[in-house]
Specification:
It is built from 10 helices and 7 strands. With 333 residues, it is of the alpha/beta class. The protein has a single domain, classed as 3-Layer(aba) Sandwich (Rossmann fold), CATH 3.40.50. It has a 7-stranded parallel sheet, sandwiched between helices. The longest helix has 22 residues. It starts with a helix and ends in a 6-residue tail after the last strand. The structure holds NADP nicotinamide-adenine-dinucleotide phosphate (NAP). The site of NADP nicotinamide-adenine-dinucleotide phosphate has 31 residues, from α3, β2 and α8.
Length: 333
């Protein structure tokens, strides 16, 4: 281990690397805290055929193989999020709120995002802060009003995170919409509104977050739906499923690109979850029918989804990259 560390250190010196490091691989010095950060330099992978335009965002360095090798130290097997800063879009209610609380319960500092309901956001913040009184984990939270269907809104979340805590380790792109219309009724506004919040803003928010993330260690988690794997497909789901399928593909590609820079990129795809988004326009009989299709004879709860996100965000999930993680109680296989 000592040999490996010294090899990594000498490689860093030889290559004059300035990329950020989050985790020490030495359990005696590692408590999940983040080492002082150095601004990452822009670089292109040698495999990339074209050079980056002048105004391209600064990506972290590709991490040399020796530095990618991590130990099996307790810290790297940990699901603790102490010292991590998370941004969760759409997190004052429903699945996003459960995610924010799950991350906070593991010690993260969380940006809780809302559009309309500041008191709901504040109660999520209060619940997260209350974890401290029980176990003193250093978790914290702030509520930030921002429209996650607009890139400026997303950027505001990143800015608030860095202003408050100086970093972003975990980005959960949970906010989304689910309209239901067959092709004959789909117009451009309907289509574009889905692709804005379900695809475009998550992509560009991820792009903006990457230079703020520690390498190795940063985590990007997109949100899709088990509907992309459902047979038979539902005609009304055209736009929603198209947008969610798109984000799954984005995650696959980014997992390769950003994976080489020490980050992981995954998609979490819930099955039906009892939230306003799911209930909208569905009579109770339809909901019962959907529940009956699940081996558990119920639809999911936000708390069924959140633990997966907390795990994927943790150091223990360093080897989970580029996956579409379906969390649906066995409803869609
Ligand atoms: N529920 C399901 O059955 C299901 C299944 C598969 C996938 N999903 C996916 O899981 C994610 C979350 O779904 P959900 O059911 O929890 O949704 P939801 O019930 O509609 O979520 C509401 C939350 O999102 C916030 N929000 C809504 N629009 C926003 C915007 N433009 N900017 C920022 N925040 C916004 C709300 O804030 P305010 O309260 O302030 O308005 C609230 O905190 C979505 O990506 C969805 O596609 C859900």
């Amino acid at each position: 281990m000592a040999g490996l560390k010294s090899l990594a250190s000498s490689l860093r010196k030889k290559l004059h690397l300035g990329g950020r490091q989050c985790h020490s691989t030495d359990p005696s010095t590692s408590n999940g805290s983040v080492e002082p950060k150095v601004e990452p330099k822009a670089s292109m992978s040698p495999a990339e055929p074209t050079s980056a335009p002048e105004d391209a965002p600064k990506l972290p360095e590709v991490v040399p193989a020796a530095e990618m090798v991590v130990s099996t130290s307790p810290q790297l097997l940990s699901t603790s999020l102490e010292g991590k800063v998370a941004v969760v879009t759409g997190s004052s209610r429903s699945i996003g709120a459960a995610i924010a609380k799950a991350l906070g319960s593991q010690g993260a500092k969380v940006v809780v995002n809302y559009v309309n309901d500041s008191s709901a956001a504040q109660s999520v913040v209060n619940e997260i802060k209350a974890f401290n009184t029980k176990e003193s984990k250093g978790c914290d939270a702030i509520a930030v009003q921002a429209d996650a269907s607009k890139l400026e809104g997303g950027q505001k979340l990143l800015a608030e995170a860095t202003k408050t805590w100086g970093q972003v380790d975990i980005l959960v792109l949970n906010a989304g919409i689910m309209g239901s219309k067959p092709l004959a009724e789909v117009d451009e506004d309907f289509f574009d509104s889905h692709f804005e919040i379900n695809v475009k803003v998550p992509v560009f928010l991820a792009k903006a977050a990457v230079p703020l993330m520690p390498t190795p260690g940063g985590r990007i988690i997109f949100f899709s739906s088990s509907l992309t794997g459902l047979t038979p497909v539902l005609p009304n789901a055209l736009t929603y499923v198209a947008s969610k399928g798109a984000i799954e593909q984005v995650a696959r590609v980014l997992a390769k690109d950003l994976g080489s820079r020490g980050l992981t990129v995954n998609t979490v795809s819930p099955g039906p979850v009892d939230t306003p988004l799911f209930r909208a326009g569905k009579p109770e009989e339809v909901i019962k029918k959907i529940a009956a299709q699940n081996p558990n004879n119920r639809v999911g709860l936000p708390e069924d989804i959140a633990p997966m996100v907390a795990f994927v965000a943790s150091p223990a999930a360093q080897w989970i990259n580029g996956q579409n993680l379906r969390v649906n109680g066995g409803a869609v296989l």
